[in-house]
Amino acid sequence: MSNSVGAVIVAAGRGTRMGTAESKQYLLLQGKPIIVHTLEVFQKHELISEIVLVTGEEDVERCRQWVQAYKLDKVSVVIPGGAERQHSVRRGLGELTTTWVMVHDGVRPFVQGSEIEACYERARSAGASVLAVPVKDTIKQVDGEGNVLSTPDRRSLWAIQTPQTFRLSDLLSAYDEAERDGFLGTDDSSLAERSGITVSVVEGSYRNIKITTPEDLDFAEFTERSRGEERR
Ligand SMILES: Nc1ccn([C@@H]2O[C@H](COP(=O)(O)OP(=O)(O)OP(=O)(O)O)[C@@H](O)[C@H]2O)c(=O)n1
Ligand SMILES: C[C@](O)(CO)[C@H](O)COP(=O)(O)O
């Protein structure tokens, strides 16, 4: 099992920016919960041998039922997450036994199988990888008063997505180090970077959005409907 690949899918967030009563990962997209769409991509991928699903404590039971109902038999365990994404990922990592881990947001249902493969191949050759897209807008650093501080060169700016792929042992060490130092990052790569791991960027697609705010749902509905039509 020296090159086995597992996935930690995190879905324990509250979706405050979405503002819906139901957490965004459980909203229906073409009749199916968003989290199920995401899990199905990893379930179908031949590289992935095991999936750990991290959800809100109160959602563990219904997620287990969906795992059964949608025949997601690579999901080995459904566990409750923590207060921040980083805590949820850490709990998920503790359940995996594979050599490699891909950490993925439960609210990124449009990741492609080919992207999963490219991320894994890059991690094997470079040590670790993140899926990303070049930023399209001009980005400015702005101070607390709303005044522009600087305009970084866009050619070096990428919007980082998931999956983020690492050797499990490397990522566990990076997580331990972050905990020791009280560091809280918004993605897994930032923890790996600070512990000296080289992370390589794999160019992905602008379609692999993180469903975060209400207008993202319009895009998601449109994209899923088009994919359904393509399949027919
Ligand atoms: N404590 C947390 C926070 C986030 N996540 C997961 O991390 C992913 C990316 O987070 P984000 O889009 O920020 O989700 P939320 O935290 O739910 O959103 P918000 O910040 O608007 O509350 C999501 O799949 C989310 O469920 C998690 O597992 N545990
Ligand atoms: C991991 C991530 O999706 C990469 O873009 C992102 O950093 C998650 O951040 P959020 O603050 O949880 O939205």
From TrEMBL:
<dbReference type="GO" id="GO:0019288">
    <property type="term" value="P:isopentenyl diphosphate biosynthetic process, methylerythritol 4-phosphate pathway"/>
</dbReference>
<dbReference type="GO" id="GO:0050518">
    <property type="term" value="F:2-C-methyl-D-erythritol 4-phosphate cytidylyltransferase activity"/>
</dbReference>
<feature type="site" description="Transition state stabilizer">
    <location>
        <position position="17"/>
    </location>
</feature>
<feature type="site" description="Positions MEP for the nucleophilic attack">
    <location>
        <position position="154"/>
    </location>
</feature>
<dbReference type="InterPro" id="IPR050088">
    <property type="entry name" value="IspD/TarI_cytidylyltransf_bact"/>
</dbReference>
<comment type="similarity">
    <text>Belongs to the IspD/TarI cytidylyltransferase family. IspD subfamily.</text>
</comment>
<comment type="function">
    <text>Catalyzes the formation of 4-diphosphocytidyl-2-C-methyl-D-erythritol from CTP and 2-C-methyl-D-erythritol 4-phosphate (MEP).</text>
</comment>
<dbReference type="InterPro" id="IPR001228">
    <property type="entry name" value="IspD"/>
</dbReference>
<feature type="site" description="Positions MEP for the nucleophilic attack">
    <location>
        <position position="210"/>
    </location>
</feature>
<protein>
    <recommendedName>
        <fullName>2-C-methyl-D-erythritol 4-phosphate cytidylyltransferase</fullName>
        <ecNumber>2.7.7.60</ecNumber>
    </recommendedName>
</protein>
<keyword id="KW-0548">Nucleotidyltransferase</keyword>
<keyword id="KW-0414">Isoprene biosynthesis</keyword>
<feature type="site" description="Transition state stabilizer">
    <location>
        <position position="24"/>
    </location>
</feature>
<comment type="pathway">
    <text>Isoprenoid biosynthesis; isopentenyl diphosphate biosynthesis via DXP pathway; isopentenyl diphosphate from 1-deoxy-D-xylulose 5-phosphate: step 2/6.</text>
</comment>
<dbReference type="Pfam" id="PF01128">
    <property type="entry name" value="IspD"/>
</dbReference>
<dbReference type="InterPro" id="IPR029044">
    <property type="entry name" value="Nucleotide-diphossugar_trans"/>
</dbReference>
<keyword id="KW-0808">Transferase</keyword>
<dbReference type="InterPro" id="IPR034683">
    <property type="entry name" value="IspD/TarI"/>
</dbReference>
<dbReference type="InterPro" id="IPR018294">
    <property type="entry name" value="ISPD_synthase_CS"/>
</dbReference>
